[in-house]
Amino acid sequence: MDQTSRRKALGAFIKTQRLQLSPAELGLGAGSRRRTPGLRREELAQLCNISVTWYTWIEQGRTVSVSAPALARIAEALRLSPAKRAYLFELSGKKDPSQQDILQQEIPDEILAVASNIKTPAYLLDRYWNAVAWNRPARNLFAGWLDQKSGPKNLLEYTFCTPQAMTLISDWEQRARRLVAEFRADCGLLLDEPQIAELVTRLCTNSAAFKRAWNSHDVIEKEGGERRFNHPTLGQLSYQQVNLRVANRPELKLVVLLPA
């Protein structure tokens, strides 16, 4: 979807949500001159503390200058569900300011338990690519990472800063470069977050290979495919990788390795 189509889709979505919101829900009188259901543009603009003209341009897809805070006010005024709010920000290409609140919430036990109930190697990554849960097969596979009681649990730090990773991953140089491109694509809207910036700075300092890959600005969608390993005790191993998102916590990624 190009930028023009995206702006029009955003405006159409906001308009339909406005027309579906009953004035009575917000304590507004129906009024004798209401010819259509839902809120008027003037009323929603007032609730969002933005000008009617600017709000009209948003609905008409005529402006690209809608800020994340303004979108958040629109989402709150429209009383959007979490799914609709996520869709609103996805259309806008902006980062939802409320996402930080979600990140601070603990991950439910039932989500953490998913990886442990899979029979093949599986691990769960958070927004910063830290492993937050994994099963026994994954611990047995990833020598120097998930089998360690201490040390970095970040996938990027393991890949670039742990000697065992360079031996374990068969095509390490190619996979490592691709991993950085996938991370950039995954965190494109988050690069200004302090924790992301600190992680990137630390990796650039500790790994020349990471710094070269990061400075190339390559972007690749995180996909599955064949993964080959040279395990120190299990020998040559081959898997097909499958990546899954957690529906109600999309910042979490479940990685499953199926025997090839």
UniProtKB/TrEMBL annotation:
One Pfam family hit: MLTR_LBD
Q: Which stretches make up the HTH cro/C1-type domain? A: 38-85
Name-wise, this protein is: Helix-turn-helix transcriptional regulator
Origin organism of this chain? Paraherbaspirillum soli
